[in-house]
Design goal:
Blueprint lengths: L6 E6 L7 E7 L4 E8 L12 H12 L6 E3 L5 H4 L11 H6 L5 E5 L17 H31 L4 H14 L3 H10 L2 E5 L19
Helix pairs in contact: 4-5
């Protein structure tokens, strides 16, 4: 029987306006690594070339090429932009996916069935279905706001401060589909959690209690 961890180390990455944390649990005979979010909307200045890739590479090095748990708290760009992929397989999200996470945890609103307006996971009920529809509508509105803000860079209807605020709000709240799709498929197991549900980490993180 494996006892609990002997220590825990938190690595916090400077991704600018965003969040990215790697939590290491040290056991007598092993290490476990949990990545909590990986996103940015405004990267630090001066920004190195391929900045998010450098962060992803550092995460991979620190975890020894193996992530045990990935937690994506919600789909705002400042929390999940780093999980995006590209066709050549060289994006930061491709690096994280190569760490073969054992378990990926996301909110129930990210369940594949919640991607349409028709339904979500059957066990959530009508109220949750309506909530998922509202979130999808918010994503559509945000995309429209971002489009207007970018177009106004040439028209100049808004003042600089208003234009910057609209651009930030719109960009941060768009669907971020490449990141979302990557999170859906990168884990050996994916769980979409609501309040009070079992996160399924007992065997992966022995001696660690995790509440949703």
């Amino acid at each position: 029987m494996t006892c609990g961890p002997t220590s825990a180390t938190l690595f916090a990455f400077n991704v600018g306006f965003g969040d990215c944390f790697l939590l290491r649990f040290q056991y007598p005979d092993m290490r476990r690594h949990v990545l909590i979010d990986f996103g940015s909307t405004r990267q630090p200045k001066p920004r190195p070339s391929k900045f998010m890739n450098k962060v992803a590479d550092q995460i991979k090095e620190l975890c020894g090429g193996k992530l045990d748990v990935v937690v994506a708290t919600h789909r705002h760009k400042d929390h999940i932009e780093g999980f995006r992929t590209n066709k050549s397989g060289t994006a930061p999200g491709d690096v994280i996916a190569s760490c073969n996470p054992t378990l990926v945890l996301q909110p129930w609103t990210e369940h594949p069935d919640a991607e349409t307006d028709a339904k979500i996971s059957p066990d959530q009920g009508e109220a949750s279905c309506n909530f998922a529809k509202a979130l999808n509508n918010m994503n559509r509105l945000s995309a429209a706001v971002y489009k207007v803000a970018k177009a106004d860079e040439k028209r100049g209807v808004f003042d600089d401060r208003t234009r910057a605020a609209l651009s930030f709000l719109g960009e941060n709240n768009i669907a971020n589909k490449k990141s979302v799709k990557n999170l859906m498929k990168m884990g050996e197991k994916n769980l979409y959690l609501a309040f009070g549900q079992d996160p399924g980490t007992k065997d992966i993180l022995p001696g660690v209690d995790l509440d949703v």
